[in-house]
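Lay summary. Proteins are chains of building blocks that fold into shapes, and those shapes determine what they do. In this project we predict the shape from the chain. Here is one chain we studied, written as its sequence of building blocks.
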Amino acid sequence: MHALHHTTMRWRAAGQTFAFLPTMGALHAGHLKLARQGAEMADHVLASIFVNPKQFGPSEDFSRYPRDEAGDIALLQTSGVDLVFAPAPEDIYPEGFATTIHIQGPAKAGLEDRFRPNFFDGVATVVAKLLIAADADYALFGEKDYQQLQVVKQLAHDLGLRTAIVGITTQREPDGFAMSSRNRYLSKIERHQATAIFKNLNQAAVKIRGGAKAQSATRAASRSLTTLGFKVDYVVARNAETLAIPKHQDEPLRLLAAAWLGKTRLIDNIEV
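And here is the predicted shape, written in a compact code that computers can read:
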């Protein structure tokens, strides 16, 4: 932490701005897009690599989560990142660490929190610690993890952090499939099948824009995915800002989906 503070304080003393990109490594083109956008927004870019054990449940994939720190650092350095912070778990959670941030609002929307009950407490705790340590002008988060983005915005607002939370549009493959570190778990056949999530979300959005009820359109998308062999956790329409169930036709909407394909859980979302 001291080396991080030394560098960022030097930037600040020179009147320079900097953007912060928190990651768990296993980087892909979406992360690099965030880094490049950070370089356009600020004088410097700081990135972190930390696989946070507190946001994995007992049956989740912490031990097999892909790790390639050396490769990730090399990618970041070619994408405009000036400093990489890669702490060990004991640096973030030293012996005697006893604080957890418990967050409500968008963290209790019945989406990811329904299937991963402790996930957002783990996210909020580590993100708060990283944001406070970095004290950046901007922090960049991809919209693919949309509920997480809204949680982080709420966290920064409630704690009065100076860092502006910036959501960056989901980076997609040419066929529309959302980039994710977990995509490498998919077989070639599954990778081809996985495009159905984005396609069905788009079909639902078209129906809603045409006057169909949101619940009807998302139910049809869920049925379609189930027929194609997905195990669907949810396909829903929510208020784009609060993630609450929409009550009025003129609310800004976000369609969100989570589904299993084989042993891999995939999430995606789009604006209506």
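What the prediction tells us: The first strand starts at residue 18 and ends at 23.
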